[in-house]
Amino acid sequence: MRLYKAPLWSLIILFGCYCQLWAAEKPAKAAIASAHPLATQAGHEILRKGGNAFDAAVAVTAVLAVVEPYSSGLGGGGFWLLHRSSDGFQTMLDGRERAPLAAHRDLYLDEQGEVVAQKSIDGALAAGIPGVPAALAHLTENYGKLPLAELLKPAIEIAEKGFAVDDYYRRMASWRLPVLQAHDASAVQFLLQGEVPPVGHLIKQPDLAATLKRLAERGVDGFYRGELAQRLVDGVRSAGGIWTLQDLRDYRVVERRPITGHYQGMRITSAAPPSSGGIAILTILNILQENNYAELSEPQKTHLLVEAMRRAYRDRAEYLGDPDYVQVPVEKLTHPLYGAGLARSIDMQRATPSPKQAERSTAEGQDTTHFSILDREGNRVAATLSINYPFGAGVVVPGTGVLLNDEMDDFSASPGVPNVYGLVGGEANAIEGGKRMLSSMTPTFVEDAHRIAILGTPGGSRIITMVLLGILEMANGRGPEAWVKLPRFHHQYLPDVIQIESDALNDQLISQLTEMGHNFKPLKNRYGNMQAVVWHKSTGQVEAASDPRGVGMAKIE
Ligand code: DON
């Protein structure tokens, strides 16, 4: 008998230990940080109903599409970075817009071959084929636990009952007032008697509610085929666009392997092409690591960081584009040895000038959106979504409630000609029918020995450096409250200036860097709207923070 008892007891003890370990492997609470309180609340409501982080991500995406029409929407696209706790599987859902099949590289050029910038920003010709509706269906079917109809309920209800205009909405609508006024369906949906509505006015979107219901009932086909697809194509074409039914029918979400790498014992998991974010962040971190960034004096640190940014954005312009159309040298650009080579090209006493080229003043804003979610199982979502410029192309397709994106501006319309964010590009990101335009959206996970972080932000070309500064703050031991409010600076190769928020660098530092040959551009507005969640693995404690620059809400429950 004894012979049998000993192994049985040890098995019970072993099982107990395993359960304890397992318990410590889970967060004590769930957390959601998003750019709007209604979206954060909707996500928690879904978690309370038994949904997982992926279900909550569907609800949050859909609510943001209703309450932040200046940032994202069914007419837009995005990237959802996922981590499934049961098996550690990680993937990036690429729901980025595609160029319509009829698009070509001269789409935005006039007869003299000059870029007509406004054509890729305002109006239906600026719109790529949306990916958000397909991504909502894909996320639900492949990763969620609850039905799509349940997950879309909060968004449908808000679209029907309305949400209240706040100062932030007024600022964004004022910015885009002329284009919203120029399209009747946009004016009806977003303005009041043709003007920016007052604070407290309810924005009701019955057509959008009907489109969401159609998606809830029929899934992806409810949007990309049949009556709604026909309405979208008719509406786009009569407003000067080039969409076809085939464009909508052919749209697919692609799952991509995230970009991964290490910095000072932290594992970084970030967005893969057609985003430039993950690659650029790793290039920069590899350069910093090579030059012992953490050990340097303040001016040397800032100089090195700026020079690393400059080089990563130069490579972005040269090499990056849709991986289904061009070969992106991911291995090379993210390899520590490549970073070491770039580090050697940096003069630690002098700025390396970028070549002189046409410059365009860069847009400053908080349009586009990000949310971060952690559930009690440890599932994670970091998602950055966009319709590009505030209120996208400014065109609501009549009878659909769908506001078109102007993401086509993220292509390089002509080699070396900057887009609305001042970014240049070439062949790799040239316009081609069916191709996805290069993005800077950078949903990211960072893991060190004690913490797992989920973060991201909007901010056009500055997204990448904002996430980078967040990662460096984390490496410094600071928490998410510090990362989201940190004053920011940025360099993107061209234009050759360090763009700074008013309080980002002190006067002494600025004069030291000016001596080294750097140029500065103080920004009028603050930028970014970071949403971050952190899980402390050893204690199970959870933190969440929402950027004070926006109106978002971080909630732990
Ligand atoms: O995908 C991109 O990189 C851009 N369309 C993102 C735009 C953006 O973040 C605007 N926010 N200021």
UniProtKB/TrEMBL annotation:
Pathway of this protein?
Sulfur metabolism; glutathione metabolism
Record flagged with keyword Cytoplasm: no
* UniProt cross-references to InterPro entries, sorted A to Z: GGT_bact, GGT_lsub, GGT_peptidase, GGT_ssub_C, Ntn_hydrolases_N
Disordered: annotated segments: 349-369
Active site per database record = T368
Q: Which UniProt keywords apply?
A: Acyltransferase, Glutathione biosynthesis, Hydrolase, Transferase, Zymogen
Asked if the Swiss-Prot or TrEMBL record annotates the protein with the keyword Aminoacyl-tRNA synthetase, the reply is no
What residues bind L-glutamate, as annotated? R96, S386, I387, N388, D410, S439, S440, G460
Record EC number: 2.3.2.2, 3.4.19.13
The catalysed reaction is:
glutathione + H2O = L-cysteinylglycine + L-glutamate; an S-substituted glutathione + H2O = an S-substituted L-cysteinylglycine + L-glutamate; an N-terminal (5-L-glutamyl)-[peptide] + an alpha-amino acid = 5-L-glutamyl amino acid + an N-terminal L-alpha-aminoacyl-[peptide]
Modification after translation is described as: Cleaved by autocatalysis into a large and a small subunit.
Q: Name one GO biological process term.
A: glutathione biosynthetic process
Q: Which SUPFAM superfamilies match?
A: N-terminal nucleophile aminohydrolases (Ntn hydrolases)
Source superkingdom: Bacteria
Q: How does it assemble?
A: This enzyme consists of two polypeptide chains, which are synthesized in precursor form from a single polypeptide.
Q: Which family does it belong to?
A: Belongs to the gamma-glutamyltransferase family.
Q: What is this protein called?
A: Glutathione hydrolase proenzyme
Protein's organism: Candidatus Thiodiazotropha endoloripes
